[in-house]
């Protein structure tokens, strides 16, 4: 319980410290806060592993009067992933967002924004109240938009404004849905909603909330804001935006459908969600193939990778009796969420290093980078393996689980999407890989310390290790798993 | 010990790989010692295991990943056959590669991936479950890619790209097949054939086809073979490894596993997929040879020859009669020995005489007698000249084809013999009979390069001459078939 | 672990010895002089054959289990082969230039010899096949030794047909072995009768052996290769090596009847056709080669007719033909008219024997051959003497016209004596072997009717020869059928269009697709579109849920 609270409060405290303390002490304070929050997240995970879901009612008030926080396996796992990415980004940002490199405004603003984002992400992972989640989402959006715009370049500001516009539209839809729900049931607690009496307005409420969350999760065709926003931000910020931010709204979507209103799961709606996911996989892949800049490729890859997760809606519970596990598709989708987060952060951090070293992320300028900075090349390659879904990475485990469910439930068309997506990923990641590993090295890049290079490598290794050591995370995700995850929607 | 040994086997190449990556570029002695040490250790372990397995010992190690994803390392007779080939040839290739590269640049990277590639092959051989087979299969793809691209010049990079472009769809097909199958049967272990009754024949046929596409890319089945000749841009030790030990062999080995341990010969026959596979293999045998005939570059010709020869193994598996299977399995070893000899020699011709094209070989027999003699033995073995290695495989395949009631295969073998003669004999003729071109010179005073070739050439003769002895590859293959897959 | 071998090592030593001599030239220092060892290589085999080819041996671990044992026919042929090789080897050792190429020649000479001996000793099909491959393929080096254009051209034809023959033979053997489930020659032979593909197998065996034995129309290599090879090589090719095909047929063709007619017809075609075609040749070696085709044709007829005298006939022909080829060599080396006359005389006596002059070895061979082949074939055999006399008489004229090469060699007399010995054995050995090998009474050859039957076709042949001398005989290059084949037209077939490798997709359409995606992406960015899509999505989800619940 303490761990849960610590995970929420420590980053907030650190954010205040990063604003309030004198200039010299800000970064160390932020780093200290990051370390402590990481410890708190891990601690929470250990507690959940040992004792099951941790529940906390604020002020001792039970829902519906009070607001409940609950860390289950899913929330705690996302928390750990977030903590790992955040810590890595913080370490990288020590170099990259130093005032001397990124300018005084970015050098100042990045730390509190990042820590605020972290606190709100953690809140999103454990909140059980739809309105509370709305507030958290808004905070996440605001800090994310600020992070996009932090460089102050015209291009970045345009991208940030577009992001804001889309995000606010999404928020409004979501809020409308929340209001309808509250009007009908008088509660917004997820657990209580699961036991509610069905109301006629539920359909509209769910539709509005889903659409709103889809925008925030950047599902095709509402992804258009994402690539430019992510590529315009400074690289450490991009890492956060791409690896973490969409996961918050995604989690809410999952909770909404699997925990709050599983009774409303209409087959057509599930099919539509998965179809949009499939289209995202293909579309994102194709557009990533058409890009000439590393960050844009990686950003479009996010669009594609997020698409996979939506396949969970029709596939959940489709594992059939022949399997030795349950909830394969659901767990696979979460695995995809986790491994994508780690790998994508690694990729953006590599892109950041290249930007610092070469001043450009055009593929034509990156030829031979692996020779100059071998660890980054290796990190990018490992992360690519995860995104391509090749064994023994976490991405492979995710795809394997999803694909098995697709076959076992006779919906093998989704397996086609998974296979095609993997091949597309291989195609669009091959280009940067080929460039990075090319023989020539046109300009001698700026020296990058090995400790900095090791950061993305660490994340990439983690994304592979998630597959190599997948049995523990698998078990962990089953803690507090909602029933429809195993039985299907 | 029974669980530690498979892991230890894997580690003998995995650990050198891990360490080598981080070695400085110029610490040649340490790197070479690591590589050779690992290879020797592995060889010793395998020899020890050969005796133990012959006495009935079983080795197994299991690592559960996510449920259903079990990495199972198991030593059975078939695994041992493949692994002893790869360990022996790895050892020789390591010596060769050390001599070949000398003190060139980027060697830590090269030998790191080199070891990783062998680790993947070892894992592939030891895989006791379908999913671990797939995992190592992919690892193999990933670890050979940097080897193909090693020179980092334009042809190499193109070759690497083409390799990837073929390998990944193949992997996708394989994964698709595995998951389709396992979604109905649960995880498939090679020890116990899965119960296929839950799937209807049409689905099983489709799964079989997907399996064959998946492993067929690596095995170079026409029309999935395009990457193989392109990959010739890689340095000679890589080609040797690719063609004789690792990639192509992994594909062929995969076909054997799929046919015998996943589907089972009876099921394959009942489904009526054996004959189409045999036809594909036959077509590959002929097509590869015809294309080999058209090549002017030594390595290209050898590459197409591989395309053709590896399908003998596939053919043996597809025919599904005991003798054909013996022929196919023994060709796994024999082709490896012969082809690695040829590639070693091709590399020596390139290194020591600067000869890449066939017309440059004129008169090299007198200049480089050892190399030329080894090349000749390899080539004659490929043609199937008795009593060399290739003859034994061919003979068993032919008998097996008759046993399986597929006499048309004899025509394929006949045609292949002819085509092999047509593309190898002119090379030998040039080597030994035509006068040396003016200005051409070469020598084979490079023991590190020549000795491995001589050893494999001697083995090519030896395994044919002593085929009937129980410790020969033929004896081992017979043991596998009579014990494991007999009626 | 099996014992290394069981049985007597004598047959193995017979094969091992030439192989050991064959590796001598591998040592550079000995390479130039290795040629001297040639006559020694077949000596153990000769001794072994004279001792009656005793003993058998099994090597269970070697190849697929090697078994060596000589049958009754084999022993005769083994001895003849060893003898021909020994004399030819001595000739080669004395006359051929030393040097690196002589080293190569020595090595492959010995390998060919080992193969040639091996076909008589093999008791399992794998050993037989290995030996056959050795004798076929290694002999290529004997053909191309001179490296002249003609020799290399002949070599190409030879190796092509040899490889074809090997392949056909192997396939045939596989068909038999698959049915027999055993590798013993006797078992495999018996299995052809029941094998589902038995007729095909037999056909392939006939083709495989027929190529070696100069069976029409697979004989084309023979008239090309024999003249092109050095004299010693031609002698063994024509005298001994062709018999490998013969022993193969004797050992492996089953008792069934279907294939016999084929052999008889093709044999007769060769026996008469090749002899007549020999008249179109000017090179005495080519004429002899056609005569070999003709004589081998007779042997094929005998095999087809099931005659008991095949080995006996072959024994005589081998030695006589070996001596004749060596005579051509001696003639080229003859420096004085006396020597030329002596050579002509020697050749003449051998010719008379081959043509079947009564009381010569050749006549005996023919008598033995005629036993039990039926009247028609018996008559054909008698008639073949006409053409044989014709073609060999023509050979003698060609031989007499052969210009001498001015090369003095010291051992001319010794060599001549050896060759004369070989010819004498051809004439005499059949007498010695008559009681054991032929089931006819001892006095049979002396009967007047028998003598007359042998004499009149020869006289007829002489008349024909006299007539032929008056005709303007055409002068064709050797190789008959092959010369008229459009070989050059086959070449482009092999040069199929070569596509580029590894091209999975065409670039342009893919790029166009990607461009379209980019445009569409920009279109999605417009707020009216995005906004309405958003609202649409919300309402659509709501509707779907509404209607489903």
From TrEMBL, chain A:
Span of the signal peptide: none
Principal subcellular localization: membrane
Keyword Transmembrane helix: yes
Topology of this chain in the membrane: Multi-pass membrane protein
Swiss-Prot/TrEMBL keywords: Cell membrane, Lyase, Membrane, Transmembrane, Transmembrane helix
Pfam families in alphabetical order: Proton_antipo_M
Residues passing through the membrane, by range: 73-93, 105-125, 131-151, 163-184, 204-226, 238-258, 264-290, 297-317, 337-357, 369-391, 411-430, 451-474
NAD listed as a keyword: no
InterPro entries for the chain: CPA3_Na-H_Antiporter_D, NADH_UbQ_OxRdtase, ND/Mrp_TM
Molecular function per GO: lyase activity; NADH dehydrogenase (ubiquinone) activity
Residue ranges of every copy of the NADH:quinone oxidoreductase/Mrp antiporter transmembrane domain listed in the record: 127-417
Cell location: Cell membrane; Membrane
One cellular-component annotation, GO: plasma membrane
GO biological process, one term: ATP synthesis coupled electron transport
Function field: NDH-1 shuttles electrons from NADH, via FMN and iron-sulfur (Fe-S) centers, to quinones in the respiratory chain. The immediate electron acceptor for the enzyme in this species is believed to be ubiquinone. Couples the redox reaction to proton translocation (for every two electrons transferred, four hydrogen ions are translocated across the cytoplasmic membrane), and thus conserves the redox energy in a proton gradient.
Similarity comment: family membership: Belongs to the CPA3 antiporters (TC 2.A.63) subunit D family.
Protein name: Formate hydrogenlyase subunit 3/multisubunit Na+/H+ antiporter MnhD subunit
Organism the protein comes from: Roseinatronobacter thiooxidans
TrEMBL record, chain B:
Keyword Transmembrane: yes
Top-level taxon of the source organism: Bacteria
Function noted in UniProt: NDH-1 shuttles electrons from NADH, via FMN and iron-sulfur (Fe-S) centers, to quinones in the respiratory chain. The immediate electron acceptor for the enzyme in this species is believed to be ubiquinone. Couples the redox reaction to proton translocation (for every two electrons transferred, four hydrogen ions are translocated across the cytoplasmic membrane), and thus conserves the redox energy in a proton gradient.
Membrane topology: Multi-pass membrane protein
Protein keywords: Cell membrane, Membrane, Transmembrane, Transmembrane helix
GO cellular component terms given for this protein: plasma membrane
Species: Roseinatronobacter thiooxidans
Boundaries of every NADH:quinone oxidoreductase/Mrp antiporter transmembrane domain copy: 127-418
Transmembrane feature ranges: 34-54, 75-101, 113-142, 163-182, 202-224, 236-256, 268-290, 302-326, 370-388, 408-429, 449-468
Official protein name in the record: Multicomponent Na+:H+ antiporter subunit D
UniProt key word Phosphoprotein: no
InterPro entries: CPA3_Na-H_Antiporter_D, ND/Mrp_TM
Main location per the UniProt record: membrane
Subcellular location: Cell membrane; Membrane
Family: Belongs to the CPA3 antiporters (TC 2.A.63) subunit D family.
From TrEMBL, chain C:
Alphabetically ordered keywords of this record: Cell membrane, Lyase, Membrane, Oxidoreductase, Transmembrane, Transmembrane helix
Lineage: Bacteria, Pseudomonadati, Pseudomonadota, Alphaproteobacteria, Rhodobacterales
Gene Ontology terms, MF aspect: lyase activity; oxidoreductase activity
InterPro entries linked to this entry: ComplexI-like_HydComp, ND/Mrp_TM
Subcellular location: Cell membrane; Membrane
Protein's job: NDH-1 shuttles electrons from NADH, via FMN and iron-sulfur (Fe-S) centers, to quinones in the respiratory chain. The immediate electron acceptor for the enzyme in this species is believed to be ubiquinone. Couples the redox reaction to proton translocation (for every two electrons transferred, four hydrogen ions are translocated across the cytoplasmic membrane), and thus conserves the redox energy in a proton gradient.
Main location: membrane
Any single GO CC term annotated in Swiss-Prot or TrEMBL for this entry: plasma membrane
A Pfam family recorded for this sequence: Proton_antipo_M
Membrane topology: Multi-pass membrane protein
Organism: Roseinatronobacter thiooxidans
Name of the molecule in the record: Formate hydrogenlyase subunit 3/multisubunit Na+/H+ antiporter MnhD subunit
PANTHER family (UniProt xref): HYDROGENASE-4 COMPONENT F, NADH-UBIQUINONE_PLASTOQUINONE
Top-level lineage group: Bacteria
Domain NADH:quinone oxidoreductase/Mrp antiporter transmembrane: 122-385
TM region(s), chain numbering: 12-30, 37-59, 74-93, 102-120, 126-145, 157-180, 200-222, 234-253, 259-279, 286-305, 311-335, 342-365, 377-400, 412-434, 454-472, 524-548
């Amino acid at each position: 319980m303490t761990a849960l609270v610590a995970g929420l409060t420590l980053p907030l405290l650190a954010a205040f410290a990063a604003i309030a303390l004198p200039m010299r002490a800000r970064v160390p304070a932020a780093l200290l806060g990051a370390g402590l929050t990481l410890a708190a997240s891990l601690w929470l995970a250990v507690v959940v592993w040992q004792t099951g879901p941790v529940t906390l009612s604020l002020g001792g008030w039970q829902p519906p009067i009070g607001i409940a926080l609950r860390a289950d396996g899913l929330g705690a796992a996302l928390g750990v992933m977030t903590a790992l990415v955040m810590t890595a980004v913080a370490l990288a940002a020590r170099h990259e967002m130093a005032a001397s490199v990124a300018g005084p405004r970015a050098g100042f603003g990045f730390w509190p924004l990042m820590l605020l984002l972290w606190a709100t992400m953690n809140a999103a992972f454990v909140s059980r109240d739809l309105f509370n989640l709305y507030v958290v989402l808004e905070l996440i959006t605001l800090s994310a938009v600020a992070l996009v715009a932090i460089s102050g370049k015209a291009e970045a500001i345009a991208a940030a404004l577009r992001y804001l516009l889309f995000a606010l539209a999404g928020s409004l839809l979501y809020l409308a849905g929340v209001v309808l729900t509250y009007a009908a049931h008088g509660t917004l607690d997820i657990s209580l909603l699961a036991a509610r009496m069905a109301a006629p307005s539920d359909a509209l409420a769910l539709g509005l909330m889903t659409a709103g969350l889809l925008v925030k999760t950047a599902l095709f065709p509402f992804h258009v804001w994402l690539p430019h926003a992510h590529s315009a931000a400074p690289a450490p910020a991009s890492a956060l935006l791409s690896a973490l931010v969409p996961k918050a709204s995604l989690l809410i979507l999952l909770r909404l459908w699997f925990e709050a209103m599983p009774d409303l799961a209409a087959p057509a709606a599930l099919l539509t969600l998965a179809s949009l996911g499939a289209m995202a996989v293909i579309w994102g892949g194709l557009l990533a193939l058409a890009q000439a800049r590393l960050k844009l490729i990686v950003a479009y890859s996010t669009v594609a990778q997020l698409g996979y997760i939506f396949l969970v809606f029709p596939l959940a519970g489709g594992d059939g009796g022949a399997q030795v596990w349950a909830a394969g598709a659901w767990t696979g989708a979460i695995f995809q969420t986790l491994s994508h987060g780690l790998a994508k952060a690694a990729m953006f951090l590599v892109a950041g290093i290249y930007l610092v070293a070469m001043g450009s992320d055009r593929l034509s300028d990156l030829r031979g980078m692996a020779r100059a900075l071998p660890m980054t090349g290796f990190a990018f390659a490992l992360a690519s393996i995860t995104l391509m879904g090749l064994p023994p990475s976490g991405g492979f485990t995710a795809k394997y689980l999803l694909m098995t469910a697709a076959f076992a439930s006779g919906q093998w068309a989704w397996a086609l999407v998974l296979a095609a997506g993997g091949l597309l990923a291989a195609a669009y990641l091959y280009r940067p890989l080929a460039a990075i590993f090319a023989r020539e090295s046109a300009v001698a890049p700026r020296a990058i310390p090995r400790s900095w290079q090791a950061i993305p490598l660490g994340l990439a290794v983690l994304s592979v290790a998630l597959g190599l050591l997948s049995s523990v995370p698998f078990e962990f995700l089953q803690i507090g798993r909602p029933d429809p995850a195993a039985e299907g929607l | 010990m029974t669980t530690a040994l498979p892991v230890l086997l894997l580690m003998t190449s995995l650990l050198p790989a891990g360490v080598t990556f981080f070695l400085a570029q110029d610490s040649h002695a340490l790197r070479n010692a690591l590589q050779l040490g690992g290879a020797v250790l592995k060889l010793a372990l395998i020899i020890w295991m050969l005796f133990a397995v012959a006495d009935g010992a079983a080795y197994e190690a299991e690592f559960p990943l996510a449920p259903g994803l079990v990495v199972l390392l198991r030593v059975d007779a078939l695994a041992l056959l493949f692994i002893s080939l790869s360990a022996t040839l790895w050892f020789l290739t390591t010596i060769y590669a050390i001599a070949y590269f000398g003190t060139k640049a980027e060697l830590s990277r090269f030998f790191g991936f080199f070891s990783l590639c062998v680790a993947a092959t070892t894992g592939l051989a030891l895989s006791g479950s379908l999913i671990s087979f797939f995992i190592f299969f992919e690892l193999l793809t990933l670890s050979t890619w940097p080897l193909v691209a090693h020179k980092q010049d334009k042809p190499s990079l193109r070759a690497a790209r083409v390799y990837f472009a073929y390998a990944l769809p193949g992997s996708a097909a394989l994964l698709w097949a595995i998951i389709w199958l396992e979604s109905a049967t649960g995880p498939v272990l090679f020890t116990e054939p899965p119960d296929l009754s839950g799937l209807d024949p049409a689905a099983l046929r489709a799964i079989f086809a997907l399996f064959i596409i998946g492993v067929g890319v690596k095995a170079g089945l026409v029309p999935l073979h395009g990457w193989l000749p392109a990959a010739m841009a890689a340095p000679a030790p890589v080609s040797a490894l690719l063609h004789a030990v690792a990639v192509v062999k992994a594909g062929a080995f995969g076909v054997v596993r799929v046919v015998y341990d996943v589907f089972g010969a009876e099921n394959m026959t009942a489904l009526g997929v054996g004959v189409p596979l045999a036809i594909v293999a036959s077509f590959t045998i002929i097509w590869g040879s015809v294309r080999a005939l058209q090549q002017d570059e030594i390595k290209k010709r050898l590459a197409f020859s591989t395309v053709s020869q590896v399908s003998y193994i596939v053919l043996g598996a597809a025919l599904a009669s005991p003798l054909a299977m013996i022929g196919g399995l023994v060709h796994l070893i024999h082709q490896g020995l012969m082809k690695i000899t040829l590639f070693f020699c091709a590399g020596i011709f390139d290194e020591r005489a600067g000869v890449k094209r066939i017309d440059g070989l004129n008169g090299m027999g007198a200049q480089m007698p050892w190399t030329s003699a080894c090349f000749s033995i390899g080539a004659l073995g490929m043609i199937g000249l008795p009593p060399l290695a290739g003859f034994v495989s061919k003979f068993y395949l032919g008998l097996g084809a008759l046993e399986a009631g597929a006499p048309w295969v004899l025509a394929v073998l006949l045609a292949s013999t002819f085509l092999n003669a047509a593309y190898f004999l002119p090379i030998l003729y040039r080597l030994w009979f035509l006068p040396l071109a003016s200005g051409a010179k070469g020598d084979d005073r490079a023991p590190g390069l020549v000795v491995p070739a001589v050893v494999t050439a001697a083995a090519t003769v030896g395994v044919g001459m002593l085929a009937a002895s129980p410790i020969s590859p033929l004896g081992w293959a017979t043991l596998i078939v009579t014990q494991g897959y007999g009626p | 672990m099996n014992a290394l071998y069981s049985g007597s090592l004598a047959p193995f030593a017979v094969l091992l010895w030439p192989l050991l001599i064959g590796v001598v030239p591998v040592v550079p220092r000995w390479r130039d002089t290795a040629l001297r060892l040639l006559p020694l290589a077949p000596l153990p085999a000769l001794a072994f054959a004279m001792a009656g080819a005793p003993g058998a041996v099994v090597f269970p671990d070697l190849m697929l289990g090697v078994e060596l044992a000589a049958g009754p026919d084999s022993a005769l042929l083994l001895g003849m082969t060893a003898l021909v090789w020994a004399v030819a080897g001595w000739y080669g050792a004395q006359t051929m230039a030393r040097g690196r190429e002589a080293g190569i020649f020595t090595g492959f000479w010995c390998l060919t010899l080992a193969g040639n001996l091996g076909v008589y000793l093999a008791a399992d099909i794998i050993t037989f096949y290995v030996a056959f491959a050795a004798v076929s393929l290694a002999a290529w080096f004997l053909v191309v030794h001179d490296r002249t254009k003609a020799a290399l051209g002949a070599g190409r034809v030879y190796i092509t047909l040899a490889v074809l023959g090997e392949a056909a033979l192997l396939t045939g053997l596989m068909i038999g072995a698959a049915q027999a489930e055993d590798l013993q020659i006797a078992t495999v032979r018996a299995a052809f009768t029941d094998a589902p593909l038995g007729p095909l197998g037999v056909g392939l065996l006939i083709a495989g052996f027929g190529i070696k034995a100069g069976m029409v129309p697979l004989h084309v290599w023979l008239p090309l290769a024999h003249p092109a090879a050095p004299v010693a090589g031609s002698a063994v090719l024509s005298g001994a090596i062709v018999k490998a095909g013969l022993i193969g047929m004797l050992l492996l063709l089953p008792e069934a009847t279907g294939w016999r007619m084929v052999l008889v017809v093709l044999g007769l075609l060769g026996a008469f056709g090749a002899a007549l075609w020999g008249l179109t040749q000017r090179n005495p070696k080519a004429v002899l080669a056609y005569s070999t085709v003709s004589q081998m044709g007779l042997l094929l007829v005998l095999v087809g007719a099931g005659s008991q005298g095949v080995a006996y006939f072959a024994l005589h022909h081998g030695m006589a033909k070996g001596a004749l080829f060596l005579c051509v060599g001696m003639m080229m080396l003859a420096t004085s008219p006396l020597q030329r006359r002596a050579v002509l005389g020697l050749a003449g006596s051998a010719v008379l024997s081959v043509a079947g002059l009564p009381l010569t070895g050749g006549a005996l061979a023919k008598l033995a051959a005629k036993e039990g082949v039926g009247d028609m074939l018996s008559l054909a055999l008698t008639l073949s003497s006409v053409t044989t006399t014709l073609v060999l008489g023509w050979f003698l004229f060609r031989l007499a016209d052969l210009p001498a090469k001015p090369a003095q060699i010291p051992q001319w007399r010794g060599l001549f004596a050896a060759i004369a010995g070989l010819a004498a054995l051809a004439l005499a050995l059949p007498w010695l072997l008559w009681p054991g090998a032929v089931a006819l009474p001892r006095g049979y050859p002396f009967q007047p009717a028998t003598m007359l039957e042998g004499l009149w076709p020869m006289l007829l042949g002489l008349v024909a020869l006299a007539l032929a001398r008056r005709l303007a005989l055409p002068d064709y290059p050797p190789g008959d059928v092959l010369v008229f084949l459009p070989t050059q037209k086959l070449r482009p077939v092999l040069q199929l269009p070569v596509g580029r490798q590894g091209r999975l997709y065409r670039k342009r359409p893919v790029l166009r697709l990607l461009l379209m995606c980019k445009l569409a992406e920009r279109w999605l960015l417009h707020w009216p579109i995005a906004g309405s899509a958003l609202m649409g999505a919300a309402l659509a989800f709501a509707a779907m849920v509404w209607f489903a619940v």
